[in-house]
Fold:
Amino acid sequence: MAVAIIAVPYGSPDYYQALALRHLYLRQPLGLSFTPEEEAEDQCACHVVAKVNDRVIGCVLGVEKEGWIKIRQMVVEREWQRRGIGSQLLQTIEGLFKDRGRTAFFLHARHHSLEFYRRNGYQPIGALFYEVGILHQRMEKHLSLPEGRI
Ligand SMILES: CC(C)(COP(=O)(O)OP(=O)(O)OC[C@H]1O[C@@H](n2cnc3c(N)ncnc32)[C@H](O)[C@@H]1OP(=O)(O)O)[C@@H](O)C(=O)NCCC(=O)NCCS
Structure:
């Protein structure tokens, strides 16, 4: 079945499907909800989803933070994992920011997903730390722009 990887606007039906997926995988298992700060951040973020027919089966977002792009809220539905969809989501969102001249990316990786991000070119920086009650690792990636672009 064909998987489409597309950017979607904040507030669109695809955005709300992605939000439900994020809640199901990243917040509900921890007994948490999205904070008002996270909800506000969503409004100025760039959202990319993976769709099969009309159903969102994966998502990620990127948001500007002090000169960096922070990658957040990466999810692929369990039955679609290990087929390269997470990597395609990452490459697509990185490409959208690269087109705007942005090349410095960071994220807070849950410890169980370190290998996934490492395979996608992210390097661990500093010590492990706790966030939402889970051990995390800061990871960074720097892209290069084509010759002649600043
Ligand atoms: C992390 C996640 C997004 C990866 O998505 P995915 O579509 O399965 O990733 P890919 O298929 O592109 O994986 C690429 C490579 O990353 C590595 N990888 C992916 N998932 C892995 C896992 N669970 N354990 C070890 N390595 C993994 C593998 O090397 C994989 O290549 P391979 O399948 O050829 O061995 C997905 O597992 C997920 O949604 N997890 C639950 C939510 C979550 O924890 N999100 C991350 C929050 S920081």
Remarks:
- Residues 57 and 79 are 9 Å apart (CA to CA).
